[in-house]
Design a protein that fits this description.
By secondary structure, the chain is an alpha/beta fold. It contains eleven helices and seven strands. The strands form two sheets. The chain has a five-stranded mixed sheet with strand order 4-3-5-7-6. It has a two-stranded antiparallel ribbon with strand order 1-2.
């Protein structure tokens, strides 16, 4: 709690929609909710809100239930708007259990609104969520919904633990081994010993890049947080951002095969 209070008062590097700021934005968690919540859930929320409005009389008779399900997440989400600690959607995860229960109750309770079609609507919503989730398996951390353009476009909106927590080191090690990538230079967002994963090469976080990122004599594996400029200068890897990567490892590490000069 002390560390959370410290960062909230002193700020921490944050990123939203291509911009950097130390003390965050009130819009951060609304945007995070819209791009990190499955598309089917967002659609279900819109449909459920319509059902609740159409059946206002039933809602009135169940106002205690609705208050118990809606009030806690609304209060929590409202408080999040004042937070300077903008590093991940995980900070608003407590709202989702309430949201899902309220969503299920709304869809299945009001089956008279559309000629008893809400069971089918609920099934379609569930199927949409399942298909969208399976489509990103097993890389769930950098999940972004279809409406936002999917995981490949995630860094347009958010960074940090929304995409990259150093979770793809083993996958990078396997890629290097299978593809025979050598020599390799790395700039990885992790404190783990990367040699354990078979990643042996020049660590750009240690050596720096005096020759410029576009003139490195090696293939480059760089975490998306550092590639975009979070926790380092946005200009550091600007030359790489103009290139098409050789591979995206779990959408959190980009590999570039630079031409040898």
């Amino acid at each position: 709690m002390y560390e959370l209070g410290y960062h909230n008062s002193n700020g921490i590097p944050s990123y939203l929609l291509g911009h950097f700021r130390r003390h965050g934005w009130w819009q951060y968690f609304p945007v995070a909710f819209l791009v990190k919540t499955p598309t089917g859930v967002l659609a279900g929320c819109a449909i459920a809100a319509y059902f609740l409005w159409r059946r206002r009389g039933d809602a009135h008779s169940n106002r205690l239930l609705i208050a118990c399900l809606a009030l806690p997440p609304v209060v929590y989400f409202t408080l999040s708007l004042f937070s300077s600690f903008n590093i991940g959607v995980r900070h608003i995860l407590p709202i989702y259990p309430f949201l899902y229960v309220l969503l299920a109750w709304s869809l299945l309770r009001h089956d008279r609104v559309l000629n008893k079609a809400t069971g089918r609507i609920a099934a379609i919503v569930a199927l949409c969520v399942a298909v969208e989730s399976i489509s990103v398996y097993p890389h769930y951390l950098p999940f972004f919904n279809w409406a936002s353009g999917g995981p490949r476009n995630g860094s347009r909106y958010l960074l940090d633990s929304n995409i990259d927590w150093g979770q793809d080191l083993a996958n990078l090690g396997d890629f290097i081994k299978k593809r025979g990538v050598s020599p390799i230079c790395t700039a990885l967002f992790t404190a783990a010993p990367v040699e354990y994963y078979g990643i042996v090469g020049r660590d750009l976080n240690v050596t720096g890049i005096p020759e410029g990122a576009g003139h490195l004599p090696c293939a480059v594996a760089v975490s998306v947080n550092l590639l975009q400029g979070l926790y380092n200068s946005p200009n550091k890897f600007a030359a790489l951002r103009k290139r098409e990567p050789l591979a995206r490892i779990g959408n959190s590490i980009y590999v570039y095969d630079l031409p040898r000069e």
